[in-house]
Specification:
single chain, alpha/beta, Rossmann fold, globular
Length: 278
């Protein structure tokens, strides 16, 4: 679904943020990017959606080479990538519903959005998404009146209103307490399963990555030094990614929501969601 070949990024001052990254990400897979600060995690995400221009290599989404695209053609492809930000990127003076509807900007244009002229089907979809992320009772509340977890849920609903194929998520739990962090990542995981969305999550918390990701990529100094399953992330690999440290007690216990998925033979998103709520 997403394919990176030889992706590299060098800045004019000579710093090389990414060094020949190769990656194949299938639909429905949740991938966590881990690594020390400055390893290139945020740069990788921003290269994928062309907020940062790569220096070399190729980026293909659904077989289409993103680096050959410009203008309107690039904007159309960006609709297929929903971005969820660390600092939420909400407009504080707008309501929850208005912020979610802004996710449709790539389809409707600035003036129709400014005049609040959205198709009724889009408004209905926004209602459904807000109900799905647990904010149906906060539709008319201003964004600046929300808690951090609620603001992140608005950002998730806004990204999903684009009907994306890929979610790019930059440190979604950096400003949240441990309980809310788990709730947000559990929600992202569930939504990706329900909608067969691929996701790349830049995250600093190794235990959360182990709990909620299907696959983990470890970056160090712009290089890919680990690509594997969460259970393969042992002390030797953590040392390879981060350097020497006492990594005892790092392995996370399995989340109850993950246990529900593994212990069932569910075939449908509805059945999966039902098991998680039981």
């Amino acid at each position: 679904m997403l394919e990176l070949q030889g992706l590299s990024k060098s800045y004019t001052r000579g710093d090389q943020a990414l060094k020949e990254i190769n990656l194949n990400l299938p639909a429905g897979q949740v991938l966590a990017l881990i690594g020390p600060s400055g390893a290139g995690k945020s740069t990788l995400i921003r290269c994928v959606n062309r907020l940062v221009e790569p220096s070399a290599g190729s980026i293909r989404l659904g077989g289409k080479d993103l680096q050959t695209l410009k203008g309107q053609e690039l904007r159309r492809v960006r609709r297929r990538m929903g971005m969820i930000f660390q600092e939420y990127a909400l407009v504080d003076r707008l309501t929850v519903m208005e912020n979610v509807l802004s996710g449709y900007l790539g389809y409707t244009g600035f003036w129709r959005s400014f005049l609040r002229r959205y198709p009724q089907t889009v408004v209905a979809q926004a209602f459904e998404l807000l109900e799905r992320v647990g904010l149906e009772d906060h539709l008319d509340k201003r964004a600046d009146a929300l808690s951090g977890g609620q603001r992140q849920r608005v950002g998730i609903a806004r990204a999903l209103l684009q009907n994306p194929e890929l979610l790019l998520i930059d440190e979604p739990t950096a400003s949240l307490d441990p309980k809310t962090s788990r709730q947000i990542l559990r929600l992202i995981k569930e939504l990706c399963r329900e909608r067969q969305l691929a996701a790349i999550i830049n995250i600093h918390d190794v235990q959360l990555a182990q709990l909620f990701a299907d696959r983990i990529l470890g970056l160090r100094n712009g290089r890919l030094v680990f690509d594997g399953k969460p259970q393969e992330l042992n002390t030797d690999i953590l040392t390879r990614i981060y350097g020497e440290e006492d990594w005892s007690g790092t392995n996370a216990e399995e989340d109850p929501g993950q246990q529900a998925l593994k212990s069932s033979s569910l075939q449908s998103p509805q059945a999966y969601a039902g098991a998680l709520s039981s």
